[in-house]
Design brief:
The chain has 196 residues and is α+β, with helices and mostly antiparallel strands. The protein has helices spanning 41-63, 81-87, 109-121, 166-195, and strands at residues 4-9, 15-24, 31-39, 67-72, 75-79, 126-134, 140-152, 155-164. The strands form 2 sheets. A 5-stranded antiparallel beta sheet has the order 5-4-8-7-6, with helices on both faces. It has a 3-stranded antiparallel beta sheet with strand order 1-2-3, with helices on one face.
Length: 196
């Protein structure tokens, strides 16, 4: 039969790739098997380390507290679970291949188009900016967003990291309201004191 290939692990832990083929000499009734060995231990270790690294990186991105998505040609190709939850989607299939504009608040569309141009066309960082994202139910939330040009699966792409700042903005608004109330109270007390 033709060329056979397999691997053998030696007692010292090294891995050998074994190639063999049957052969015979013309006019000789004996058949021979020719073997060739290649030590692939280091390549196997490198492949395993790369696999573990990719797996760890994927877990890191999937568990990140920020919404993270990757787009190429203005379409989603990856979205982490945090972003999917923030947008109200049940799974990535609902968002994949959609245009990225589908999650941008209409009032922020021009800003986002400029930022996409900066990252995707110019290859520069689109710095941290506030952007409103539309949820699937039509409501929106405030996020701080940054876009970074990257290579993803061999293609030029942009990774966007977005942190939901809705609660922070609500707290700031409440503090501002409280400050106004304190100021109004102070003014009223001052006016009352002047009248007496």
């Amino acid at each position: 039969p033709g060329l056979l290939e397999d691997e053998a692990t030696l007692s010292d832990g090294r891995t050998l790739r074994r190639l063999s083929t049957s052969s015979s000499v013309a006019g000789d009734a004996m058949r021979y098997r020719l073997f060739a060995f290649e030590d692939v231990t280091e390549r196997k270790r490198t492949q395993e380390a790369l696999r573990r690294s990719e797996e760890s990186f994927r877990r890191l991105i999937d568990r990140a507290p920020e919404g993270i998505f990757v787009h190429t040609q203005r379409r989603f190709i990856y979205a982490n679970p945090t972003l999917l939850r923030a947008l109200g989607y049940d799974g990535p299939a609902e968002l994949m291949a959609k245009p990225i504009w589908s999650i941008v608040h209409p009032d922020d569309l021009e800003l986002v188009k400029d930022r996409v141009h900066t990252a995707a066309v110019k290859g520069a960082l689109a710095p941290l900016r506030e952007v409103r994202y539309l949820r699937r139910d039509g409501t929106w939330y405030d996020a701080e967003s940054v876009g970074i040009p990257i290579e993803f699966d061999g293609h030029e792409a942009v990774v966007v990291m977005a942190r939901d700042i809705t609660e922070r903005k609500q707290a700031q608004s409440q503090l501002l309201q409280n400050d106004r109330m304190v100021l109004a109270g102070t003014l009223a007390a001052g006016v009352g004191h002047e009248i007496n």
